[in-house]
Specification:
This protein is an alpha/beta fold. Helices cover 33% and strands 22% of the residues. The protein has three domains: 207 residues, FAD/NAD(P)-binding domain (3-Layer(bba) Sandwich), CATH 3.50.50; 112 residues, FAD/NAD(P)-binding domain (3-Layer(bba) Sandwich); 106 residues, 2-Layer Sandwich (Enolase-like, domain 1), CATH 3.30.390. The chain contains 15 helices and 22 strands. Helix 4 packs parallel to helix 7. The chain starts with a helix and ends in a 6-residue tail after the last helix.
């Protein structure tokens, strides 16, 4: 089986080398013969590429374009590079997740490891300062990368004047027009609001406000049981808040494998998080000291009230294209406001491209980065590729949950015969040694070929472990391929090896 897997992978790699593409592209399929070097015919020769938006997709696209020899300008309205992710999203939230976890460990776990304190206290201003320092250093680092790669950086709000011109209202009060042969829209996404709920970033906050609370709320209600809501709920729950999560749907994180989801929810409940599912918010009263929410079953029924000091609205995100004047140049969008693009990330206006959260696909920073690289490779006459079926997703709670590929429900829906291999971290020596053994690895593989279809991990460091699985899926590996790779002992990664063994044969340590 292992030799067959190797031969299959070799044939797959050869086909990729010959075609420079993949038949598994989610949105489009394409051939190298359809591409030719060249830029949009109209406009100025001032820039080869102009990127609107300096978030993960935009700044990566700008740097890659410059590295490919294209004269590049990046426009960013915030005045600080990194977009939502770096400034008010991924990075500051992970800083607070880590800091709050350290506090929680000091309170609840250190004694069992022989580390004792007389008094453990929270210094919230210091915690916020550490978060802000991390953000500042990283944004300055991107500016340094722009200088290193000779990317021109314009600070201001850009909008289209023509398919090759962007008018920028600069943050210093001026205005300039930036011209380019190719313009990439990388403006990301914004918080989705709820009808009748006004976010003031004080009592009713978005994720941005939840990252900057000046005091720990006694009661925090999270509206929306997705990645962001559960992560921010975890932060404030560890610091002492009573957390209640209100979710319209029947499940938390609906995109997650159901078996993993059930274990994940039980874990969060053990940590004190409460869930009110199949419920919608129909009214908000902020006239008192706190917030009073009126709730109603999603299917209709008797109303109830829920009081909180702070309410976090985390009901998803919308593409952010406001103020770009897309209608002026005729760029088409779908009913959700997402910009429509072809396999080369080109809109219906030939000189205008779009990447990241403003187009269909997962709203994830790392997906936007891949979009950015592929987009500018196409512009430079090369071939780019992003397979949206193989983009890993991570919930950065504790334990973390990470996945790549298909869930068991998706595999069943496809009608594919499959096998499942699982391995619990309770049987992993490293997890037991560090006394952090909650979770498991679950692998789904096609029964006939043993090709891996999906991998799901719930573990303290699942977000790091998932990338071995992502590589395996990218190269059509079998579960036996992973199982026959020597994994260092003792490591958490051995759980993935054991789950792979359980998929095609039998695990050793259970």
């Amino acid at each position: 089986m292992a030799m067959a897997s190797f031969a299959r992978r070799k044939a797959y790699l050869l086909s990729r080398n010959l075609s420079n593409t993949s038949s598994e592209a989610v949105r489009y399929s394409f051939s190298i013969t359809s591409f030719s070097r060249g830029f949009a015919s109209s406009g100025s020769d001032d820039n080869d590429v102009v990127v609107i938006g300096g978030g993960p997709g935009g700044y990566v696209a700008a740097i890659k374009a410059a590295q490919l020899g294209l004269k590049t300008t990046c426009i960013e309205k915030r005045g600080a590079l990194g977009g939502t992710c770096l400034n008010v999203g991924c990075i500051p939230s992970k800083a607070l997740l880590h800091s709050s976890h350290m506090y929680h460990e000091a309170l609840h776990s250190f004694k069992s490891h022989g580390v004792k304190f007389d008094n453990v206290q929270i210094d919230l201003p210091a915690m916020m300062s550490q978060k802000d320092k991390a953000v500042s250093n990283l944004t300055k680092g991107i500016e340094g990368l722009f200088k290193k790669n000779k990317v021109t950086y314009v600070k201001g709000y850009g909008k289209f004047v023509s398919p090759n011109e962007v008018s920028v209202d600069t943050i210093d009060g001026g205005n300039t027009v930036v011209k380019g042969k190719n313009i990439i829209i990388a403006t990301g996404s914004d918080v989705k609001s709820l009808p009748g709920v006004t976010i003031d970033e004080k009592k009713i906050v978005s994720s941005t406000g939840a990252l900057a609370l000046s005091e720990i709320p006694k009661k925090l209600v999270v509206v929306g049981a997705g990645y962001i809501g559960l992560e921010m709920g975890s932060v404030w729950g560890r610091l002492g808040s009573e957390i209640t999560v209100v979710e319209f749907g029947p499940d938390i994180v609906p995109s997650m494998d159901s078996e993993i989801r059930k274990q994940f929810q039980r874990s969060l409940e053990k940590q004190g998080m409460k869930f009110v599912l199949k419920t919608k918010v129909v009214g908000v009263d902020t006239s008192g000291d706190g917030v009073k929410l009126t709730l109603e079953p999603a299917a209709g029924g008797e109303q109830t009230t829920l009081e909180a000091d702070v309410v976090l609205v985390s009901a998803g995100r919308n593409p952010f294209t406001s103020g770009l004047d897309l209608d002026k140049i005729g760029v088409e969008t779908d009913k959700m406001g997402r910009i429509l693009v072809n396999e080369r990330f080109v809109t219906n206006v030939p000189s205008v491209h779009a990447i990241g959260d403003v187009i269909p696909g997962p709203m994830l920073a790392h997906k936007a980065e891949e979009d950015g690289v592929a987009c500018v490779e196409f512009i430079a006459g090369k071939v780019g590729h992003v397979d949206y079926d193989k983009v890993p997703g991570v919930v950065y709670t504790h334990p973390e949950v990470a996945s790549v590929g298909k869930t068991e429900e998706q595999v069943k829906a496809l009608g594919v015969e499959y096998r499942v291999g699982k391995f619990p971290f309770l049987a992993n020596s490293r997890a037991k040694a560090i006394d952090d053994a909650e979770g498991l690895v679950k692998i789904l593989a096609e029964k006939e070929t043993d090709k891996i279809l999906g991998v799901h991990i719930m573990a303290p460091n699942a977000g790091e472990l998932i990338h071995e699985a992502a590589i395996a899926l990218q190269y059509d590996a079998s579960s036996e391929d992973i199982a026959r790779v020597c994994h260092a002992h003792p490591t958490m990664s051995e759980a993935l090896k054991e789950a792979a063994m359980a998929t095609y044969d039998k695990a050793i340590h259970i």
